[in-house]
Amino acid sequence: MIRNDFSVSRRAVLMGGGAAVLGASFPFSVSAAEPIKMAGIYTVPVEQQWVSRIHKAAEAAKAAGAVTYKYTENVANTDYPRVMREYCESGVKLIVGEIFGAEAEAREVAAEYPGVAFLLGSSFMPDEKANPNLAVFDNYIQDASYLSGIIAGAMTKSGNIGMVGGFPIPEVNRLMNAFMAGVRESRADAKFQVSFIGSWFDPPKAKETAFAMISNGADLLYAERFGVSDAAKERGVLAIGNVIDTQADYPNTVVASALWHFEPTLNKAISAIQAGSFKAANYGVYSFMKEGGCSLSPLGTFSGKVPADVMAKVTKKEAAIKDGSFTVKIDDNEPKSL
Known about the structure:
Blueprint: H1 10-16, E1 21-22, E2 36-41, H2 49-63, E3 67-72, H3 80-89, E4 94-98, H4 103-112, E5 117-121, E6 134-137, H5 142-155, E7 160-165, H6 170-186, E8 191-196, H7 203-215, E9 220-223, H8 228-235, E10 238-243, E11 254-260, H9 263-275, E12 280-281, E13 294-296, H10 308-323
Parallel strand pairs: 2-3, 2-4, 4-5, 5-6, 7-8, 7-9, 9-10, 10-11
Antiparallel strand pairs: 1-12, 11-13
Helix pairs in contact: 3-4, 5-6, 5-10, 7-8
């Protein structure tokens, strides 16, 4: 079902919270004053962490008058091409979403509609020959994940940290690896329990996996998926959040979070369409901290509880990341328990 509404309650709370040029110019442009017809196609509910950031940015662009915006959520991978075609036939000129489970099919549809711009989350790079109108992105928020790891390393007492992820794909792996590298800055002897639940949205399964890690000695959890912080709260251990800030829901549990801001990515695409210069490109770079695409959340309820020398290190590293004097390694290899 196509939707442009947004229900209140938990959803409303959650929603609040330089690309390489490849290929020919996009053959469609609009004036800066004309809103672009935009659609979002999501395989999970819009409150899911990753998609919620895209949705939030789209709503902001809509409020600014840059786009009109409709979306469809909970789209099965097998149904993704059909929904893409429906939006294209309806006159939409920009489609955003994630195609990790429908790569080949989605790219085939994009080739059928050269007058539509596609900005899609993908583990693969753009193909300038086959899809000059398809740009890719991913949440390269390893900078913020690394900083959250420095804090985590200082807050664990046992040095045993549990990490629950969705799937071991590059966009998850790089965040986990950066987090682990940050932890070692504060706790060189830290041990990690790593597990993937095989789903992007299964809070009960993530919770049960986290419970098992706590039973195995973990006193701090990396909550890449929903459900992990619930387990941490129930068992009285700490958690580090990912993509969104959930501390308001877990004030005594979530110490800090690596936040993703999709606005720089979307705004670059909108500007390119308005200028008639949208191209096959990697928009992932706009998730970097120096581009404003990610940040470390405020400590909030944990202010004063993280050692001052650790926060001084975080501040120094953050400044170095932003000025380019320090680069967080991008490691897309699957992390292992150790």
